[in-house]
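stuck on this fold:
=====
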Amino acid sequence: MAARGVKACVGMEASDYTNPEEYPTEIHDYLATFEQCLGSVEEMLKAMMLVSRSDLQKLEPLEQAKLDLVSVYTLNSLFWVYLTIQGVNPKEHPVKQELERVKTYMNKVKEIAEKKKASKLDKGAASRFVRNALWEPSTENEKKNKGPGKGKKRKMD
């Protein structure tokens, strides 16, 4: 859908570029690759549009957030391409701030996902581990070990 709009803006498909005087021949491969990428984007968008909203609501909230952010980022990126094709500098357009805002939220969601994956600390087990690793004999144990016959033995010459 969006890819058709971009193709319409360009006015031709890469296979239509047969007259080398219309464009530099060095960019023919780039145009062909661009057309393939647009086709891939169009297929992905079609697949996303087939999924009902009720199916998406079955996802966990974190997964829903990821999907929504990817969708928004994709649409804004396509708009960026559209502006570029129209000769508008997208860096001076509000779409740049929108992309930065979406990136910020993507990073926040990524941090939340990493915190969720991080192992939880078992405070009881950790305190037992530290207590046993730092064990010191009590004063009673020291007296028993230093009693008669338990000290260092000397050699008699």
Summary: The CA atoms of residues 6 and 82 lie 6 Å apart.
